[in-house]
Amino acid sequence: MTLLDSLVDRFDTLPPGLLLLVAAAVLAAEVGLLAGLVLPAATTMLTVGLLARAGRVDLGVALAVTTAAAFAGDQLGYLEGRLLGPRLRRGPVGRWVGERRWRRAEALVASRGGTAVLLGRWTAFARTLVPRVAGAAGLPYRRFVLFDGVAVAVWVPGTVLAGWAAGGLPPGLPAVAGVAVVVAVAVAVALRRRRVRRRGVRRACSGRVPARRGSTRRRPGPRRPGEGRTAPVRRGAVDRC
Question: Which of 10, 14, 139, 157 is the S-S candidate for 134 at Cβ 3.0 to 4.6 Å?
Answer without folding.
Answer: 139
